[in-house]
Write a structure and sequence with these properties.
Layout (H helix, E strand, L loop, with lengths): L3 H7 L5 H7 L9 H7 L5 H12 L2 E2 L17 H7 L1 E5 L3 E6 L5 H10 L4 E6 L2 H13 L3 H14 L7 H8 L2 H16 L2 E8 L4 E7 L2 E6 L6 H11 L11 E9 L2 E12 L2 E10 L14 H11 L4 E6 L6 H12 L6 E5 L10 E4 L8 H9 L5 E4 L5 H12 L3 E6 L6 H9 L3 H7 E13 L5 E3 L3 H7 L11 E3 L11 E12 L2 H8 L4 H10 L5 H10 L5 H8 L2
Parallel strand pairs: 1-4, 3-4, 11-15, 11-16, 12-13, 12-14, 14-15
Antiparallel strand pairs: 2-3, 5-6, 5-10, 6-7, 8-9, 9-10, 16-19, 17-18
Helix pairs in contact: 8-10, 9-11, 10-11, 14-15, 15-17, 17-19, 21-22
């Protein structure tokens, strides 16, 4: 069946030449038919008439006088505005008024909000839907109306370059309230980061939840400078400096929680982009039991972190939970008879009883020279945030060889690849083989929402392609995400680790001395019982913890 854009061309509403012109300029996530309407190539009325004919839908221009918002009071006006839709109601079927019947997220969302109800669509002009949303949804809360009026007042102000002027705008009540709303909502949703990004026509605010970015809001362009200046004031940054990157920190109490925010500001073509990393002390557990280790691997790893000396490396990409794992390891072995010192960039969480050093490049304190000073502090255990160069690697190895237990991280795809990476940095293989105790690779997969996950049996072709090491049937199904209110319709709530632990045995040391490739090391380790990342992932799929797609996404299986 031809898509709506092809039908537009067939009916003569859009020429093939015009279609070629808009294809390259289509913005991400904007369908071509919406782009054709927005740019004026196709009129909204012509589109609605065509959609009504093709999909056999009716049109509406006025709401019933007795319209009742009651059943829909909890629906986000932001969602309705973004997707140009309005819930009408109905006894048998739930009628939803839409401007774009090809936006399938609308129907899917209302099916999830009202399970068991059949969804029917009616068409209406965009301006009508917007007016109904304003009248019935935005007017239901006087506080929202008041805030909108205040924000409109700020929007009307022309923004200048004067720092004092920006400071005044950032101190306006609606701007303070808006930024606080972003922070509160992000903490409530369990976000790890807030992204405030300037675009050509507006400002985009996104939250990273369980490792995935979600759009939260799109404030108007005219409040961009005020919002960013407000964040910079809170982070004690220089609001007059907009040409260079800046870093800052905010400590704030939200919903009774002490929250640390690490703020990064970066100049872009359309203004300054701000990212805030949310560090919630109350929402994290530094316990090996809570990370998702298979029991055998947890016991083996715990034995290794209690050794008196050697290097233990944790590898994986940014955001794979390496720091949390190392903190959990330190927490496990922390005792009155051990002196533990860390050097990190940045210190993400403060650990009781542990001496933590913050890298400060501006002051001349880097990993290598900081590490030299740490060694003179008579530590038993040292954590190095990341091994980035040969000098840091050499000091770490010498520390391990002289009786210290050293933890650190690397960016490699798997455990065996860490050996190759260390050799590439310039570490001699005989030193590496003498000092390494274990290498662990890890990733984070999203956990299926227990309230809505649904059982299913995938197609045989998919099972064969992924070479799953277990059987799936109606009696022993696996699970996939569905989406509900409790998980914000994502289908997932929280994350858990999948792990690949490579103990450095005498045989592995021999392979390192022979300069064998990471592939040979990997094959040897697997023959001797190492569980690969994807195999740990499959085990968690079989247990109903995560989905096939998640394991494939993070492990490349």
């Amino acid at each position: 069946m031809a898509g709506i854009i092809e039908i537009m061309v067939e009916r003569g509403l859009l020429s093939a030449t015009e279609l070629k012109k808009i294809k390259p300029s289509g913005r991400e996530r904007e369908a071509l038919h919406r782009l054709a309407i927005r740019t004026g190539l196709v009129s909204e009325d012509d589109f609605l008439a065509l959609a009504a004919e093709e999909l056999k839908l009716g049109q509406i221009s006025e709401l019933p006088a007795d319209y009742d918002i009651g059943p829909f009071i909890d629906i986000s006006p932001l969602f309705l505005e973004e997707h140009r839709c309005f819930p009408l109601g109905g006894a048998e079927a739930l009628v939803v008024i839409v401007n774009d019947p090809y936006d399938h997220l609308v129907g899917e969302t209302f099916r999830q909000l009202f399970p068991g109800r059949r969804i029917e669509l009616l068409l209406a002009r965009e301006e009508k839907i917007a007016a109904w949303i304003r009248e019935h949804f935005l007017a239901t809360a006087e506080a929202e109306d008041s805030e909108a009026d205040e924000l409109a007042g700020v929007v009307g102000v022309e923004l200048g370059d004067d720092a004092d002027h920006l400071r005044d705008l950032a101190s306006e009540a609606p701007i303070i309230k808006l930024v606080n709303q972003f922070l509160t909502k992000a903490v409530e949703e369990g976000a790890s980061d807030i992204h405030i990004e300037p675009l050509a026509e507006n400002l985009q605010v996104r939250f990273r939840v369980d490792g995935i970015l979600r759009e939260h809001a799109t404030p108007p362009k005219n409040v961009q400078a005020s919002i960013i200046s407000r964040v910079k004031i809170m982070a004690r940054m220089d609001i007059a400096e907009r040409r260079l990157p800046q870093d800052g920190r905010i400590r704030i109490k939200i919903a009774g929680k002490d929250i640390d925010l690490r703020v990064s500001c970066l100049p872009t073509v359309y203004g300054e982009s701000v990212v805030m990393r949310i560090l919630d002390r109350t929402n994290i557990s530094f316990s090996l039991d809570s990370l998702g280790f298979p029991e055998a691997e947890r016991q083996r790893f715990e034995e290794m972190i209690r050794l008196p000396y050697g290097i233990i490396l944790v590898t994986g990409p940014t955001g794979s939970g390496k720091t949390t794992t190392l903190y959990a390891a330190l927490n496990t072995i922390n005792a009155i008879d051990k002196k533990i010192i860390t050097i990190e960039d940045p210190v993400e969480y403060e650990l009781d009883g542990i001496n933590q050093v913050q890298v400060n490049a501006k002051a001349g304190l880097g990993f290598s020279n900081g590490l030299r000073s740490i060694v003179r502090q008579d530590p038993d255990v040292i954590l190095i945030g990341e091994i980035r160069d040969r000098e840091t690697a050499d000091i770490a190895i010498q520390s391990a060889l002289t009786g210290h237990l050293v933890f650190s991280t690397l960016h490699t795809n798997d455990a065996a690849g860490a050996v190759t990476r260390m050799v590439e940095i310039g570490v001699e293989d005989y030193l590496l083989s003498s000092s390494l105790v274990a290498i662990m690779a890890q990733r984070l997969v999203r956990v299926l929402c227990p309230a809505c996950k649904e059982a299913f049996v995938p197609e045989v072709a998919l099972i064969e392609r992924l070479q799953l090491p277990f059987s799936i049937s109606k009696e022993a199904p696996i699970y996939r995400p569905k989406g509900c209110k409790e998980c914000s319709f994502s289908g997932f709530r929280g994350r858990i680790g999948i792990f690949e632990l490579l103990p450095v045995t005498d045989a592995v040391r021999g392979l390192i001395l022979e300069s064998q490739s990471s592939l040979v090391l990997r094959e040897h380790a697997v023959k001797n019982g190492m569980v690969l990342l994807r195999e740990d992932g499959w085990a968690k799929v079989q247990a109903g913890i995560t989905s096939l797609e998640e394991v494939v996404r993070v492990s490349g299986a």
